Amino acid sequence: MTTSLTAHVSLPTLGIFGGGQLGRMLAQAALPLGIRCAFLENAESSPAAVLGPVFGSGQLAEFQQAVTVLTLEFENTPLTEVDQALTTQLMHPPRIALATAQNRLLEKGLFDRLSIPTPAYRAIQTHRDLQMAVQELGLPLVVKTATGGYDGKGQWVIRDEASALPELWQHMQPAVPLIAEAFIAFEREVSIIAVRNQSGEIRCWPLAENHHHQGILSHSIVPAPRSEQLEQQAQAHMSVLMNELQYVGVMTLELFVTANGLLANEMAPRVHNSGHWSIEGAVCSQFENHIRAVADLPLGSTALVQPCVMVNVIGQHPDLAAVLAIPGAHVHFYGKTEREGRKLGHITLMPVPEMTQSQQISALKAILPNKLSLPD
Ligand code: AMP
């Protein structure tokens, strides 16, 4: 008997820039579809390595040969590598989305151009620029590196009198351009995640409410409570952004909720930590829909299955058996070694008849080595 493999021949092999947990979960979603992934990643051991070949940046040519279409999971991927790979392959999302997200000044400029409200900001190159920003935007003031920051790194909050500015300026010793932003006393932080396919169809997941601990996402609550109107605003911003960029794939927009509505903080041209809940909590996850969009396959539904909470595992692993003993807890460990502040996994708490959501959260909090900002 002969077996025909023709149905699979047309499926692409995805070349993913980055091989971290996002790459791993993308490849996990690709596997049942029969789509293979390869990764460009320099780290010694990467979470995605169990799911496909990993090429170092010295092996860019081999990576190009091994894949048919490019995508990314790491937004600080050097544009030089992307440009080299783009000589032979297409990439989704487009290069412009990556270049914009890599530079907070370009990103804010795009928000302004599209009339997406964002905190007032100034570009900072000199000490004088910083003084002017303090005068014009007032204190407190948030100063960030324009490129290369993540999880709250590369950020300073100037709270007190501007008299301390000279020392502060010395301390920053900026090797890269900086941006100063008005400090927003927001009510809470939310994110919207959406997918756009190659024909321009856009689908959004419900808004997530995000809580941080020491600059790192601690947990997300989905759907964000009291968020119907906010969700409409967020969806409108997202579709303007995605259409402008001719975006293909999953994109995330992080927003501050203020008394006057939403302010865009930053965009990520990729699947996002605040969307991990969608593996169990949505009809089609952010990972699968990204794969579908990149591979030009029909999009899946982004509808909520049930309200849920996603909790990050940071720094130290909890006891696996103890977590699994909590009804409704779904564990995702990324195969990483423990290190302070490192994202090692996440746990999604889905509703079950045996326990309320707050009982699940208390039970999880009792066994997590890192207490995060989970409510009591
Ligand atoms: P970012 O790296 O821009 O996502 O910032 C990390 C975190 O710092 C955000 O999630 C906020 O909690 C806080 N933050 C950033 N920008 C501002 C701002 N302009 N005002 C107040 N808090 C901010």
List the helices and strands and how they pair.
Layout: H1 6-9, E1 13-17, H2 21-30, E2 36-40, E3 54-55, H3 60-66, E4 69-72, H4 79-86, H5 95-101, H6 104-113, E5 121-124, H7 127-137, E6 141-145, E7 155-158, H8 165-172, E8 178-182, E9 188-196, E10 202-204, E11 208-213, E12 216-222, H9 228-245, E13 249-258, E14 261-268, H10 278-281, H11 286-294, E15 308-314, H12 320-324, E16 329-333, E17 343-349, H13 357-367
Parallel strand pairs: 1-2, 1-4, 2-3
Antiparallel strand pairs: 5-8, 6-7, 6-8, 9-10, 9-11, 9-13, 11-12, 12-15, 13-14, 15-17, 16-17
The protein binds adenosine monophosphate.
Residues 119, 142, 149, 152, 181, 183-184, 189, 212, 215, 254, 265-266 line the site of adenosine monophosphate.
- Outline: globular
Low-pLDDT sequence parts: 1-7
The succession of helices and strands, N to C, reads HEHEEHEHHHEHEEHEEEEEHEEHHEHEEH
- Biggest beta sheet summary: 9 strands, antiparallel
Return the structural class. alpha+beta
Bound molecules: adenosine monophosphate
What is the number of E strands? 17
Helix content: 25-40%
Total helices: the number is 13
Q: What is the residue-averaged pLDDT?
A: 93
- Global Rg: 21 Å
Q: Oligomeric status of the shown chains? A: single chain
Strand content: 25-35%
Cα distance, first to last residue?
A: 62 Å
Quick overview of this protein structure:
The chain has 13 helices and 17 strands.
